[in-house]
């Protein structure tokens, strides 16, 4: 459990750690996600895989593609397709803003994390991101490593 900025409890299911190294995050948005019952139960078990997942516009709506939510163990014949496209729910003005940003060269929309808010509703944090080159990734990793070492040194020097 984690308390968000507004004082509400949030249960983070999964975080896309690779997105932070592969992309430069420009803006983040919170979006609802359309799920079936077995997908929600599988998410509550904490099983989801972000590998190669991204967002695309189709007919003016935003869809999350390649997000792998494994079938629920007790789902039976009512189980879902693990990698089906999932519609994201945003306000119309947010969709228009995102569509304008994606028109830019080299900008994409990637999911950062999936969580349940204080009301038990599944949410996805998505980000407008620009891809990094290989040397930028190395630089970001070095910078993160240095910050971690400085924090560790400061912790023990007190």
TrEMBL record:
A Gene Ontology molecular function term of the record:
RNA binding
UniProt KW Mitochondrion keyword: no
User: Matching Pfam families, A to Z?
Assistant: SmpB (PF01668)
Any one of the GO BP annotations: trans-translation-dependent protein tagging
* Localization: Cytoplasm
InterPro entries recorded for this chain? SmpB, SsrA-bd_prot, SsrA-bd_prot_CS
Keyword check for Cytoplasm: yes
SUPFAM superfamilies the UniProt entry points to: Small protein B (SmpB)
Taking the record's annotation, the residue ranges forming a coiled coil are none
- According to the record, the signal peptide region is none
Q: Which UniProt keywords apply?
A: Cytoplasm, RNA-binding
Q: What is its main location?
A: cytoplasm
Q: Which GO terms describe its cellular component?
A: cytosol
The organism's place on the tree of life at top rank = Bacteria
Q: Which family does it belong to?
A: Belongs to the SmpB family.
Function, as annotated, reads: Required for rescue of stalled ribosomes mediated by trans-translation. Binds to transfer-messenger RNA (tmRNA), required for stable association of tmRNA with ribosomes. tmRNA and SmpB together mimic tRNA shape, replacing the anticodon stem-loop with SmpB. tmRNA is encoded by the ssrA gene; the 2 termini fold to resemble tRNA(Ala) and it encodes a 'tag peptide', a short internal open reading frame. During trans-translation Ala-aminoacylated tmRNA acts like a tRNA, entering the A-site of stalled ribosomes, displacing the stalled mRNA.
Q: HAMAP family, per this entry? A: SmpB
Designated name of the protein: SsrA-binding protein
**Source organism per UniProt:** Thermotoga petrophila (strain ATCC BAA-489 / DSM 13996 / JCM 10882 / RKU-10)
Upper taxonomic lineage: Bacteria, Thermotogati, Thermotogota, Thermotogae, Thermotogales
């Amino acid at each position: 459990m984690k308390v968000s900025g507004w004082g509400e409890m949030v249960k983070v299911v999964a975080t896309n750690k690779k997105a932070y190294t592969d992309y430069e995050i420009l803006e983040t948005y919170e979006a609802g996600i359309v799920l079936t019952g077995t997908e929600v139960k599988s998410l509550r078990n904490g099983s989801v895989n972000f590998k190669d997942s991204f967002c695309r516009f189709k007919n003016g709506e935003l869809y999350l593609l390649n997000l792998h939510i494994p079938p629920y163990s007790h789902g039976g014949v009512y189980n879902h397709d693990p990698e089906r496209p999932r519609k994201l729910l945003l306000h119309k003005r947010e969709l228009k803003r995102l569509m304008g940003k994606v028109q830019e060269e080299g900008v994409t929309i990637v999911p950062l994390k999936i969580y349940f808010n204080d009301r038990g509703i599944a949410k996805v944090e998505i980000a407008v991101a620009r891809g990094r080159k290989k040397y930028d990734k190395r630089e970001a990793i070095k910078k993160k490593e240095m910050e971690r070492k400085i924090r560790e040194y400061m912790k023990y020097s007190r």
